[in-house]
Amino acid sequence: PAAGEVVLDVQAIRKTFGGLVAVNDISFQTRAGQIVGLIGPNGAGKSTTFNLVTGVLSLSGGAVQFRGQPIGGLSARQIAERGVSRTFQHVKMVADMTVLENVALGAHLRGGKGAVSAMLRLDRNEERALFKEAERQLQRVGMGAYLHETAGNLAMGQQRLLEIARALCADPALLLLDEPAAGLRHKEKEALGQVLRTLRDEGMSILLVEHDMGLVMDICDHIVVMEFGTHLMEGSPADVQRSDKVRAAYLGT
Ligand code: ADP
Ligand code: MG
Known about the structure:
It is found in: Cell membrane. By secondary structure, the protein is of the alpha/beta class. Helices cover 38% and strands 25% of the residues. It contains ten helices and ten strands. It starts with 5 loop residues before the first strand and ends with a helix.
């Protein structure tokens, strides 16, 4: 997508669980070359919104468009295949495989094959292409020096970068990150922020759910604030920081 093009268009989405309205009339957009933060107190509906966009949950109302096409009724796999990639809050990797093998395996499963054993049935050329792509994405996130390291030996910050490399395989236009800074040390957060900025500058559209306000304020171009399932406000980091509504939502005053 061209810089500034709307990549994700969330239109008045809604999700109810029985009588509970978890997400109520939420609308926002993300653009190419932009990091959008989705923040709000616990229970605000951030994860549910994330799951609605990625097709993990079905919409109770509203619509979601990705690059101008409706994706609201599609399965999680179909949405991923169109170019929406996500990381999960907990890193899933095989501790005794190398970093490169983990990313290649993840890319392969993402490609819809569905079983680890299927990787063993790849022909030589398919396997080579898969490993080449994994290596390219690991280099992109600054993990080029760790390709043959055993994944179980990685520090937490490096594990998160491995996750991001895996999500980048197959060149998504939209990357959704679920609390990528959780449990990271200060230096690791800085390295993560730098990687996300670089991806953004290369034209990636990024939607970031994150509790670490330092990182959010530092790297987001635009922030959407949710409270009790509703859209509380949105604006620049400066707008959000000076908002009395946001302060009240967090402090409960
Ligand atoms: P956040 O990620 O902002 O902390 P969530 O999206 O996880 O918030 O949750 C929003 C609300 O929806 C909460 O009240 C939560 O308890 C509820 N909720 C989330 N998922 C489910 C579910 N699968 N079934 C019932 N209620 C849920
Ligand atoms: Mg959550």
